[in-house]
Amino acid sequence: MDQQLLLLEFNEVNLESVRYYAERRLLPNLHRLIENNGWATTTSEQRYEDVEPWIQWVTAHSGRSLEEHRVFRLGDIVQHELPQIWEFLEARGLRVGALGPMNAANRLRDPAFFVPDFWTQTAISAPRALARLHAAVSQLVSDNAQARLTPGSMAALSTGLALYAAPRNYPLYASLVMTSGSRPWRRAILLDLLLNDVFVALVRDKSPHFATLFLNAGAHIQHHYLFSAQCYRGQNRNPEWYVAPGVDPVLEVYEAYDRILGSIRTKFPAARVMIATGLHQDPHGEGTYYWRLRRHAQFLDRIRVPFVRVEPRMSRDFLVVCRDTEQAVQAQARLAGAIANKDGLALFQVDNRGVDLFVTLTYPREISPGFEFTVGQETISGLDQDVVFVALKNGQHNGTGYFLDTGADFRARDIQFELRELPRIVAESLGVEDPVATGVVRQPRSSAA
Fold it and tell me: In a designed cystine with 341, which of 1, 53, 372, 423 is the match (CB 3.0 to 4.6 A)?
């Protein structure tokens, strides 16, 4: 293999915050990369409503803006025949792999490996044990707020750890497991460390020319614990029952990412390594509660929402699939009409897409025992029994992302490019000519370097 390129997708990580810790010598691998190569920034959508990772990563993988790809929701990529960077490279004779890419479809003929994210219904191209591990983690992620783990999922996780976990990480895994009860963000860190171990094993065994690894713990922890971080300079503070004073979950996940970068550079010293964040997070104005339904179908039955099936998505989101457009309108009316009695705020945001609804539980305040809400003329009590607390919102999206590259020098000048140019940069870095003609990427309006 002449050249290998590994793209690490550190979803939503704020490199200004990373630099705060790196300058204090707490992140040696990231500090070295920043000092030696600098970074560039990427731009994407301007409207805040359009700045979502499941939108930006479709742009990053397809070379098309939201206006062009029109993929608005997590999991919807499977409904679009949208060329992605992996197919483009495979068609030119390169062997490719992907682990956990957000909102990406597996349309490859013979990938080195392709394991989708935990919410998108697309094919898995991986060893059987890894497919079982993926199913187990999907169940765990779906039930994250309740920390439930079925016996089958436990068995698959144990097998996956035995097959893929690097022995040098055993003590760290044990520590994260033992402390995750009181520090729940460590479950997300453990998952990303395990995904990296899986990625290293797959790249080592399959030797792809190009492979991507998507990691989400940084986004999750910034969203919910940024007010507790040393790098945060605002006035908001998380309550002590939520995060103990002096504990910094953001530093913990950045340290994990620094460890991951170090492992990739050590295991594959000849590989070119790129890091992209897609977007990043800024501090949120005030603490906002995030809630998730415990049992989605049971709740919909309780408030008499008609549906065929319901599919949980990330955190507060779920998809309600209906029989036809008429039933979807009825379901939308029931959900959109659910109003909290104490303050008149809507419980849900509903996007009617024809025969299905994309729903978000948006109620932002405390849901106390006996909580009452109204649907139509009917008052319903006990919402607190139907939901589980997820977290407090600390961070919010910003469409500017960051890009680092061991094969480029961004120190001398301020480099900025559109996120949709990422496939072109990847292709050119691998020596693939004329990516514009494929329709996957186009002639850039501005140069990346």
Answer: 372
The residues with which 388 forms a beta bridge, in sequence order, are 292
Both tokens assigned to 219? 């986004």
> From residue 385, how far is each of 111, 204, 311, 388 by CA, in Å?
45, 47, 20, 8
Which are the contacts of 118, defined by CB distance < 8 A and separation ≥ 6? 100, 134, 137, 138, 141, 142
- The average confidence (pLDDT) of the chain is 92
C-alpha 391 chain-centroid distance: 16
Report d(CA 331, CA 337) in Å as an integer.
10
CB atoms within 10 A of CB 173: 16
| pLDDT confidence band for 160 (50 / 70 / 90) | confident
Q: How far apart are CA 320 and CA 308, in angstroms?
A: 8
| Distance from C-alpha of 320 to C-alpha of 95, rounded to nearest angstrom | 37
Single out the residue of 39, 48, 45 nearest to residue 17, CA to CA.
39
d(CA 195, CA 199): 6
Q: How far apart are CA 364 and CA 345, in angstroms?
A: 9
- Is the pLDDT reported for residue 148 higher than 70? no
In this structure, the dihedral spanned by the alpha carbons of residues 153, 163, 263 and 96, taken in order and rounded to 10 degrees, is -90
Beta bridge partners of 398: 280
Walk me through the domains of the chain, giving residue ranges and CATH numbers: 5-285+395-438 (3.40.720.10), 295-385 (no CATH)
3-state secondary structure (DSSP) of residue 416: strand
pLDDT in tens, 207-229: 999 999 999 999 999 999 999 99
C-alpha angle 102/182/281, rounded to 5°? 35
d(CA 27, CA 230): 14
Q: What is the DSSP string of 205-232?
A: HH--SEEEEEE-HHHHHHHHHGGGSTT-
Report yes or no: 232 and 226 within 8 Å, Cβ to Cβ: yes
What 3-state class would DSSP assign to 311? strand
84/290 Cα distance (integer angstroms)? 33
